[in-house]
Every structure is written in structure tokens, then in C-alpha cells.
Design a protein that fits this description.
2 domains, elongated, MtlR-like_sf, 209 residues
Length: 209
Amino acid sequence: MSEYEIEMEYKRKRDDVLDNSLFLEERINKLLAELLQIDAPNSISLSNKDSALSFNTKVGLLIDIGALEKDERQKFMYFMAIRNKFMHVRSVFTFSQCFSTVDGLEKYLRKHYIASDSLSNEGQLEKLYRSLANDVLSISHRIEYNVGMAGIKRSSVENLAKAREIMIPAVVEIETALQDKKLDRKKIQKSVEWLKGLLQFTASFQKED
């Protein structure tokens, strides 16, 4: 390979690590903002300002609120360690150099992921990194899905509560009409029973939540 091709290969690796880490941090910010009901762009802690929380602190928050399992934290920490080496240490431009500067990283990744023996050592380490990156992004996607489902459930409960507020006086009004006026009692009684059943259903749904 020419010097230019080698330089471009180094740049590709650095850009790949940066893109993955930026995507992950953006997703974590979004998750925390949703979970904590924070306006991220205007937040002191979750914005892009200098006052924003560190990645390590954000991961700690995900663990504290039960969104991230403790045994998954190490994966996030190693992922970010790789990112920091490529972004802040100019002399690190290969995965071999990066892994040699992070204690326990290579051993941990080889224990959890597989890299073909047919690849060069650098190729194996890059393969291990990609497996880690895919795993971490997959975990964040799972959390994002769970947060979304929780939001849908919360919204459903709120809508059911509003429906109950409307149905209760409607039932009372119909029952009053049955007593005071000559109406199609069977038809109205059927409507009353339907409304009562619906009220019982919404009440049980809220208790389960």
C-alpha cells in the first residue's frame, strides 16, 4: 500500500469509531431525556454544552434507573475507551495500538466475541471492535424500544382515565332517564350495561398498571 492509501486506511478507522460513538451518545441522550422528562437541547446535563454530563455518568444513570444491566456497563465502558484513544491520542491510529493501551480490553473482547484466525492480528482486533460496537448499539436499541413501549402504555392509561371521566356521568344520566321518562327501556338498559362493563374494564387496566 502507498503512504496515501495507508493514511486513508487510518482515517477510515478513526472516522468509523467516531461515527459509532457519536451515534451512541446521541441515542443515550435521547433515552435519558425521555426517561427523565428533560428537554435535552436546553438541558445543562444532556446538551452539547461543556456542562453536559460525561459518558460514564450517563451510563451510570441508565443503570441507576434500571434501564441498563450492570453486566452491560463494561461493554459501554470499553466501547468509549476505544473512542477516547482514537479521538484524543494522535499516535493511536490502529486497533493494535489502541488495544495495547487499554488494560483488559483485548482479553475481554476475545472472551465475548469471535474473530477469525484467518485474519491478521489487526484484522481480528477490528472485527472484535465491530462486534462490540454492534452489541452496544443493539443494547441501546433495546432500551429505546422499552422506553417507547412504556410511553405508549402511559399514554393509554391516561386516555383510559379520560374516557372514564366521560363515561361515569353518561351512565348516571341514562339511568336517570330510565327512571323519569318513558323510553325504550330495553335498548337503553343494554347501553347502560355496556358502559358499565367498559368502566370495569378500564378500572382493572389501571389497577394492573
